[in-house]
Amino acid sequence: MNKIYVVGIGPGAYDQMTGRAIRALNDSDVIIGYTVYVDLVKDYFSGKEFMTTPMKKEVDRCVLAFEEAEKGRTVSMICSGDAGVYGMAGLMYEVGKDYPDTELEIIPGVTAATGGAAVLGAPLIHDFCLISLSDLLTPWEKIEKRLLCAAEADFVICLYNPSSKKRHDYLQKACDLLMKYRMPETVCGIVSHIAREGECAKVLTLGELRDTNVDMFTTVFIGNSQTKELNGKMVTPRGYRGV
Amino acid sequence: MNKIYVVGIGPGAYDQMTGRAIRALNDSDVIIGYTVYVDLVKDYFSGKEFMTTPMKKEVDRCVLAFEEAEKGRTVSMICSGDAGVYGMAGLMYEVGKDYPDTELEIIPGVTAATGGAAVLGAPLIHDFCLISLSDLLTPWEKIEKRLLCAAEADFVICLYNPSSKKRHDYLQKACDLLMKYRMPETVCGIVSHIAREGECAKVLTLGELRDTNVDMFTTVFIGNSQTKELNGKMVTPRGYRGV
User: Fold this and answer.
1) According to a count of CB atoms within 10 Å of the terminal CB, is the N or C end of chain B lower?
2) pLDDT tens profile A25-40
3) Among residues B119, B100, B133, B83, which one has the least CA distance to residue B195?
4) Does residue B33 sit at the A interface (CB-CB below 8 Å)?
5) A7: which chain B residues are within 8 Å (Cβ-Cβ)?
6) From CA A98, how far away is CA A102, in angstroms rounded?
7) What is the pTM of this model?
8) In chain A, which residues have their Cβ closer than 8 Å to the Cβ of B241?
9) End-to-end CA distance of chain B
10) ipTM associated with this complex
11) Residue A173: CB partners within 8 Å, gap ≥ 6?
């Protein structure tokens, strides 16, 4: 049986990886990923062969991994954060249907939601949801529905891919939808470049967030009705019956 | 400034911790936590002082941490999974209001949602939410509302604390609510003792899940309308427009 590890390397560089992830990469002959992520780990795994494919070439990247594995080489496919959260793990299983002799092992990592939460304080202490604002593979109506339901249910909401060149006003649109159920004073937070050079965090209100420009390296957090600011940190209580 | 690390140790034992978490524990004079979690890491950090408090004594545990820190000792408060997901990070900030000379550093870890997802396959590839079925600190009506909204919005749903002695029928009640919007054929998964001895995973339908007994060490996953079973694995596609 050939073997591919699908490895989440966490939000930043080496010391945010788990021991299990490091072991998998050390055990691999070839490490494959999107160029940016390969650059993050390259220096720590000398002697390995590295292969990259650009963004939007995810299927090609998966095929490349299976082809290398079929040569009998041990392969790691790396993703930033967790490979199973908007990551490559799902596509690897789908492409893997054509490669029945290759086994996948998914190695979890710290995703941007929990990595960013740690920088902001403790926003995700209670029920929360993750929503990607990218409509590349999901119709905007579906995203809109999820935003409205999440707001109505009083989830803490974490937004991935809040912006891009083509979608510069999507965060504003999302905030307007959320404000159908949430007060403009709702405590929110943004974190960019989590655990990397230039890490930057800010706690602000939903009303202020609406008029804030964020880039594609930013993760956005919208508090629930109980979330508060405590000494500059964003903190959600454990429950609704006091501490 | 005194210092407390609030550290997520991941779902299992040592090799699921990040390098940053290991560094914090090595850097600490005293490591505090719930008895079960302290036992998981104890052998790897000899020479440290360990302190434990039982379950439901979380506030006492926080006060203990701040009192130790005020003596000038470096303290780590450990949690299983991620300290910011139903963990101690929020309560530490709340209790910390009375200890202005002590600084908190939250160190993220792999939470049961992503740790369990990796065992099942790739269920969390698209928008998802976490809901705890424990009504110890949250009214059941609020949990019910979140289940219904999450089902309506077609989120993948991950359930924490699906069962306990007192709440043996809560998972059944939750499944019945979800089936107002989801087909009984919806692909689901359960994982228990993630990354520990006795790890056990199963893929099943929502209808089957309804009549399954799970214990408090189980994390439950309910797929969205696109989630499928692929060779025994639970896989959610990246989007709604094909691969």
Assistant:
1) N
2) 999 999 999 988 899 8
3) B119
4) no
5) none
6) 9
7) 0.96
8) 137-138
9) 52
10) 0.96
11) none
- Contact yes or no for A19 and B15 at CB 8 A: yes
Length of chain A: 243
Contact B141, B173 (CB under 8 A): no
- Residue A84 has its nearest CB partner, among B86, B87, B117, at B117
Angstrom distances, CA of residue B220 to CA of A70, A75, A105, A135, B193: 34, 30, 20, 28, 12
CB within 8 A of A76, min separation 6: which ones?
A4, A5, A6, A7, A24, A25, A28, A30, A31, A32
In the prediction, which pLDDT does A242 show?
47
State CA A62 to chain mean position distance: 19
Q: How many CB atoms lie within 10 A of CB A44?
A: 14
Closest CA to B2 of B96, B94, B101, B68: B101
For the stretch A204-211, contacts whose Cβ atoms lie closer than 8 Å and that sit 24 or more positions apart, written own/partner, are A206/A175, A206/A178, A206/A179, A206/A182, A207/A179, A209/A171, A209/A175, A210/A171, A210/A172, A210/A175, A210/A176, A210/A179, A210/A184, A211/A172
Token pair recorded at residue A56: 């939007």
